[in-house]
Amino acid sequence: MQADEIVATLEPWRARNRRPAWTPVVEAGDGPATASKFCGTPWTGPDAPWPDCGLCRRPLQPFLQLDLDDLPDELGRPFGTGLLQLFYCTREECQGAGGWAPFADDLSRVRVVHPGGGGPATPAPEAPAFPAKRIVGWTRLDDLPGPQDHDDNGLTYTYDFKAGTLRFECPEVGLDHTGPINACPAEQIATAAPGDKLGGWPYWVQGAEYPACPRCARRMALVFQLDSEGHVPFMFGDAGCGHVTQCPEHKDVVAFGWACG
């Protein structure tokens, strides 16, 4: 079988695994404190003060705020309500000391807050100031799982490097084919979209790294992917990619982690 024949045979598998994702449409400026935005001034309150870095103890840089009540209608409300916020320390002296592991609240802080009475707290005056970009819309795309997620979804690869062959197995479509090892790369069958996006499949730079909820041990789901040098002018390690994830059951359990090549 040629590569295009393998991909065509796997189209029912591809169709089953397609997920909608949305790329943000932005405009320069901050907007209201509760608006969805990159950087800028997030909402803070008496019960949700501006967080500090666990290392240098100085205010963290806001990276992302999502109004979970104002996302695309097609998405529904899988993430609950409130504001999802991500903060990160961008100071050079703190880089290389962590920040990539979910639930390691040293360089990063991710949380869901619920604006209420009492009024917003005064923003931290020392917080670094990346240019604010308000999210004013979303562009839909069809996303597919990357190779790191193929096995869990019924498509397996067996590499025989000595023989120079690759075996494709997908019982769902009756595929069991062995061919040259480079004839049809897994990325040609299906891969996740890179870049900043809401929902969809994670674009993994290394292996799949879904965190487990510390309360129920369920695998957490992607909420938002934040890529290096996208709408936030910051690079995670060596061109890394970060993911905000959430427990499907406990909506207040959120995490952020990233990996690079």
TrEMBL record:
Pfam families: DUF1963 (PF09234)
Database matches in InterPro entries: DUF1963 (IPR015315), YwqG-like_sf (IPR035948)
SUPFAM superfamilies the UniProt entry points to: Hypothetical protein YwqG
Coiled-coil segments: none
PANTHER family: SLL5081 PROTEIN (PTHR36436)
UniProt protein name: DUF1963 domain-containing protein
Source organism of this protein record: Urbifossiella limnaea
